[in-house]
Amino acid sequence: MDKYHIDPSKGLEFGIYTLGDHLPDPRTGERISAEQRLHEIIEYAKIAEQAGVDFFSIGESHQEFFATQAHAVVLSAIAQATSKMRIGSSSTIISTSDPVRVYENFATLDLISKGRAEIIAGRASRVGLFDLLGYNLRDYEELFEEKFELLLKINEEEVVNWSGEYRAPLRNAKVLPRPVDGSLPIWRAVGGTPTSAIKAGYAGVPMFMAHLGGPATVFKRTIDAYREAARRNGFDPSELPVATAGFFYAADTTQQALSEYYPHINEGMKRTNGQGFPKQHFAQGADPHNIMNVGSPQEIIEKILYQHELFGHQRYIAQIDFGGVPFDKLQKNIEIIGTEIIPAIKKYTAKK
Amino acid sequence: MKIVGLSGSIMGTKTRTAMDYAIKTLTEKFPDAEVTLIDLADYDLQFSDGRNYLEYEGDTGYVTQTIMAADALIIGTPIFQASIPATLKNIFDLLPVDAFLDKVVSILVTAGSSKHYLIAEQQLKPILAYMKAQIVQTYVFIEEKDFHRKEIINDDVLFRIQRLVEDTVVLTETFTKIREAKEAEYGF
C-alpha cells in the first residue's frame, strides 16, 4: 500500500468528494454564482483538512449545472489552501482528454502540493462531453481503455514509447515534470457493477467505487470480483487499495438527516440525470445495512464500521454537497465528521 | 395529470385510428388531464446509442422527454412478425431502465390475426414490468375485422377502449394517492 501512500495500520481513511455540481438549493430555488461555488469548494477543502479528513477530490462534468470542468485548476487552488490532506480527481475523464496533458497537470499539482496528488480516471456517466470535445460516442469503451493504459505507462516510465489508435504515437517521449515520488497513485473509477471492477483488477490498479444506495452486500460482490480478477492476473489484492464513495449526511437524528438531505438529492438528480431519487429507496437508506451513510452520527459510525468489516476497504469517501446543500450545512457536517465520526472510525479500525 | 398516448408504429393506420379514439375519449371524459399524442410516424427518431435520455436532440429528445414527464402512458401497438414493432422497442431502449417508475401504463393492440392475442402479454408486459410500470392488466386487443377505412366499426371495441381509458385514469389517481400517503408516512 506504500506505493499509494496508504498506511492501513492507521485505520480506515476518511475522504470527501464533490462532483463540482452547481445546482440551486431546492429550499430557496436560488443558485449561487459559479464564482461563489468555486470559492466555497476551496473553503470546504480547507475546513475538511482542519477536521482531519485524509483526502479531498473533485470531478469534472461538462454539462449544465456543473462548475468544475477545469477540475485540475480548482485542485491547484486547493493545493495552495491546504497542507496535509491528499487531493485528487473524482473523476478525470481520461477518454476525452490527452493522457500526456492530464499527467503534466497532475504531476505539477503533485509538486505544488508537495507530493499529495492522485488521479482517479473514469469514463463519464453523461456523455455530452464527447460532442463538446470532438469524440465519437461509439468509441466510449476503447477510448477509455487505451488512454487509461497510456496514462499508467506514463506514470511508470520516464521515457515513453507508445502507439495506439486514438492518439499520435510517442517516440522516446519524456513527460515532464515528474511527481515528487516518481509516480502518482492512479485509481480506476468504477460504478456499482462488477464489469469495470474486473477490468481494474486485471490491470492491478486501485479501485474507486462510487455507489448510490442499496444493500452493502451487493457492492461486496463488486469488490470481490475486483480482487479475484487482480489475483488471477498475478497481482496481490492485499497491496491494492479500495475506496468506496457515496452519499453522506449527518444530523442530530436520522429523520432530520433524511429530511434535510432528500430534497437536494432528489431535485439535483432530476436536473443532472433526468430522474429523481425515489423516496422509498431513500427511506431504505437509513437501514444499518444500506450503503448510504445518512443518519445520526452514531448510526453513521456503525454503518461505516459495518461496511469496513464487509469490504476491508482502505478509504471511505463522502459526498455531502450534492444538489445545492448550503455551506452552513456543509460546515455542520464537517464539524460532526471531525469531532465524532473520524475519531470513532480511526479508533476502531487502526491496528495498534 | 399528464397522459401521453404513444402510437408505436410508423406504418399503417389502424393503431393510430384506435389511439385517436382513445385520446378523444380521454379529452372528453377527463378535460382536466393534460394529454399529448405522440405518433411515431410524425417523428424522425434515431436509434438508441445508450446515452442519457436528456442528451438526445431534436425529435428523439422531444419524444423521450415528453414520455419521461408523463404520469401515465397509453401505448398503442400493432403486431409485426409476431412481436412489437422495432420502432416501439427503440422507444424503450432510448429510456432509462426504471423509466416507468411511478407511471401507469396501459396497452391497446391492433393485429391482423387473433393468433397474436398473447403477444402483448408475453412480450410487451415483461418489458413494462422490467421498467417498473404500474400496468393496467387488461388490454384492448383489436383485430383487422373491427376496422373499416380508418373507423372502428365494432361497438364492443369502442366500449373496451372507453374502459381502458377510464382504468388508466383511475389507476393513475389511485397510485398517486397511495404513493403520496406512503411518502408522507416517511416523514421527510
From TrEMBL, chain A:
GO terms for cellular component: cytosol. One of its GO terms (molecular function) is monooxygenase activity. PANTHER family: BLR5498 PROTEIN, LUCIFERASE-LIKE MONOOXYGENASE. This is Luciferase. It comes from the Bacteria. Keywords: Monooxygenase, Oxidoreductase. Pfam families: Bac_luciferase. Residues 13-313 form the Luciferase-like domain.
Automatic annotation (TrEMBL), chain B:
Gene3D superfamilies: 3.40.50.360. The keyword Oxidoreductase applies. One of its GO terms (molecular function) is oxidoreductase activity. Pfam families: FMN_red (PF03358). Residues 1-143 form the NADPH-dependent FMN reductase-like domain. InterPro entries: Flavoprotein-like_sf, FMN_Rdtase-like_dom, NAD(P)H-dep_FMN_reductase. It comes from Pullulanibacillus camelliae. Keywords: Flavoprotein, FMN, Oxidoreductase. PANTHER family: FMN REDUCTASE (NADPH). Signal peptide: none annotated. This is FMN reductase.
